[in-house]
Amino acid sequence: MQDRLFADYETETFTFEGRQVRVTLPSGTPLGIPVIKTEYDGAFVQLEECLLACGCHRIFMDNKNRWGTDEDHRVRRALLDHLASRYGVRRSYLTVGMSCGGLHSVNYASRYPESVGMLYLDAPLLSMVSYPMLHRDRDRVWPEIAGAYGFSDPSEVFLYNEQPVHRLAVLADHGIPATLVYGDADTTVPAEQNAEVFAAYYRFRGCSLRVYVKHGCDHHPHGPADPLPVVRDLLARYRG
Q1: 39-67 pLDDT, tens per residue?
Q2: Which of 20, 67, 105, 235 could form an S-S bond across to 97 if both were Cys, CB 3.0 to 4.6 Å?
């Protein structure tokens, strides 16, 4: 799927600290901005294709799991230094985080804020209480979270205070700009417990924020209807 989706570009694949990494290279003179998709490599890539066309490098690193745990963040941070040396890109990611990828993005940025120049969050999962603990998928997904975090009882998720929704102050303190896209009819990752919490806090702190609400849209499809204006704004606001 990767080759088919980005057939107009060269993609290099290599192993870094035991993880497979795929870097899709822009044509012409690059801007040197590393755009990292934090989860769901081949899904809803229209925005990433637009970023490639604008001269960005597109990166995907295989995660240990989709729940944004610290080992993935550590390797992702080390990868940035490797990418800077290998491709001459800047030492700050533009993260593209969709759904659980938003969990990865915010957790990563709150631990390595100096290495993030921009957050693009699309229907981001910021509260594991909202999904899956209060969702119909709870019984199916609970084993994933338990395995990722070492929880032995679902009550531990409700008490866990290191979820992304609890770590927004770190992002605001470091002035990381963000763009937020979400559907206001999301029945999987409810906006009022996730995206709208992020938006309210960023506005309260006076942070750089763009919000695109897709009225009547559920969790899917991800992405803005027209990615080009969003991409132009992302690149203009990227904190280099």
Answers
A1: 999 999 999 999 999 999 999 999 999 99
A2: 105
Q: Given the structure tokens 């229209």, which residue do they identify?
A: 46
DSSP structure class, residue 26: P
Average pLDDT of the residues in 180-201: 98
- For 110, the 3-state DSSP assignment is helix
pLDDT at 29: 77
The candidate with the shortest Cα–Cα distance to 14, out of 76, 75, 63, 60, is 60
| Strands 209-214 and 93-98, sheet pairing | unpaired
- How far apart, in whole angstroms, are the C-alpha atoms of residue 137 and residue 154? 13
Query: What is the spatial distance between Cα 162 and Cα 207, in angstroms, rounded to a whole number?
Result: 21
Cα gap 93→202, rounded to integer Å: 20
Q: Is 177 helix (H, G, I), strand (E, B) or coil?
A: coil
Q: Which residue reads 């490639």 in tokens?
A: 52
Task: For residue range 91-136, list pLDDT tens digits in order.
Answer: 999 999 999 999 999 999 999 999 999 999 999 999 999 999 999 9
Question: What confidence tier does 4 reach under pLDDT thresholds 50, 70, 90?
Answer: low
Tokens describing residue 62: 């295989």
HSE of 202, CA atoms in CB hemisphere, 13 A: 22
Q: What are phi and psi of 63, to 5 degrees?
A: -90, 155
Average pLDDT over residues 55-84: 97
Tokens (6 digits) for 5? 């989706």
C-alpha distances in angstroms, 187 versus 101, 123, 179, 184, 219? 17, 11, 21, 9, 7
